[in-house]
UniProtKB/TrEMBL annotation:
Protein name as it appears in the record: Helix-turn-helix transcriptional regulator
Signal peptide: none
Pfam families: HTH_31, MLTR_LBD
Domain HTH cro/C1-type: 34-81
Organism: Brachybacterium kimchii
Amino acid sequence: MDREALAGFLVARREAISPADVGLPAGARRRTPGLRREEVAQLATMSVDYVTRLEQRRGPQPSTAMLAALARALRLTADERDYLFRVAGHSAPDRATVHSHVAPGLLRVLDRIQDVPAMIISNLAEPLVQNEPARALFGDASLLEGWERSAIFQWFAHPENCRGMYPPSDHARQSRAQVATLRAAYGAMGPRSRAGELARLLQARSEEFAQLWDAQIVARRFEDHKVVVHPEVGEIEVDCQALFTEDETQVLLVLTAPPHTEDASKLELLAVLGTQATPATPGR
């Protein structure tokens, strides 16, 4: 572990990012360039003391989980993230399999979306970052672990928990869309990848999935218009826009409704309700 290099890099990256870059208000009397340590700690969900100790060349070696959180908070590119891991004494993540590092470009767009549901998901339908309206609509995905984070897994492994977010008339189409998404990821990542692992897991667990998987459905296109059901607000008709990374391993989803409509009012109401009545499901 190179404490000098790690500290210098963290300070330089923190000072290079403005609050606006990460969706935070600038505030008054800001004396230092870039972000404050408290803001980095808030974004990375860790203590200010921990961030301070790293920047002052003190404390234990950070874990890979802590480094991944810092990489996301500081909006690091893949090359910058790899450097962070190496100077902290860890091997850089395998880019062929890593799925938790969020594309900085998508994060910058998400940071500016505050009033409608938006989230970044992996090509296996795992929410990586959600804004507050998305958490209110779909539940807080950060409460889930492992394959439970994948909407594809939950759709077939726990249909009783997550299918209620769509009208029954739409379930068959959703099933085909989930399998088609996984088949596309499987083709890109290979049979020994996480996509292959998920496919084998669901083949053994769900007869419905196995039949659809054998049908060889492939698609990456997201439905432009859908109906989402919230337990308190009811049915909400939304338009869904998708912005992919260049390699199509991550996508930013934004859900909107026409202005001055009942559905737009329902989306606004979600901000009031928050996540209090929404189960933790990774739906999309």
